[in-house]
């Protein structure tokens, strides 16, 4: 070990046992990779024989970065799943709108026609009291869902631009639409 630095400490007593938790940062020489910084905690407990190390934990920057990347990946997958679910819900509301009114809202009327009856043509003939959804959701990235009727990829296109909020992205920024749902 090249260096060891105490970064924080906490003393406490639990069930009559005195303990001290020490947060640390250490620089460790590893033959294959050189020096690596490790952070963690060491917990000491007081016994009749003195202070004893009860628990030691630590992680390297690489492990921490890998864990953070896994968390970001999981969150991004969750956002994609939510966008797909929202699109399915909006598709169902559009299907009900069409059943009642014999057509989908126009591009100009947009998804707002699912919340309030549109004033422009083509006007709905049997608009459901209270609308077809209570509120229009934004996509998981905070952007409005896009709608076009007629669509270029299906009867109507209903989609999110994905994480980047721009058309034609890749990976997490890929457009998520009613034409590419699993």
Describe this structure in words.
By secondary structure, the protein is α+β, with helices and mostly antiparallel strands. Helices cover 23% and strands 33% of the residues. The protein contains one helix and seven strands, in the order E-E-E-E-H-E-E-E. It has one helix spanning 61-101; strands at residues 3-14, 17-30, 34-47, 50-60, 146-148, 157-160, 176-177. The strands form two sheets. A four-stranded antiparallel sheet has the order 1-2-3-4. A hairpin with a 2-residue loop joins strand 1 (3-14) and strand 2. The radius of gyration is 28 Å and the shape is elongated. This is Type II secretion system major pseudopilin GspG. Residues 75-179 form the Type II secretion system protein GspG C-terminal domain. Residues 161-182 are annotated as: Disordered.
């Amino acid at each position: 070990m090249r260096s060891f630095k105490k970064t924080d400490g906490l003393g406490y007593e639990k069930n009559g046992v005195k303990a001290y938790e020490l947060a640390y940062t250490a620089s460790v020489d590893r033959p294959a990779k050189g020096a690596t910084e490790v952070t963690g905690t060491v917990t000491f407990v007081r016994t009749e024989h003195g202070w004893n190390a009860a628990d030691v934990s630590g992680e390297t920057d690489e492990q921490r970065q890998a864990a953070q990347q896994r968390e970001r990946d999981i969150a991004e997958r969750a956002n994609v799943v939510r966008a797909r679910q929202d699109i399915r819900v909006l598709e169902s509301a559009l299907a009900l709108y069409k059943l009642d009114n014999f057509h989908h809202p126009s591009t100009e009327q947009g998804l707002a026609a699912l919340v309030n009856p549109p004033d422009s043509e083509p006007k709905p003939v049997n608009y459901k009291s209270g609308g077809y959804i209570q509120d229009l959701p934004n996509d998981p990235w905070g952007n409005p869902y896009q709608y076009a009727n007629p669509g270029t990829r299906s009867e109507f296109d209903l989609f999110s631009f994905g994480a980047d909020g721009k058309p034609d992205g890749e990976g997490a920024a890929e457009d998520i639409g009613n034409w590419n749902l699993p």
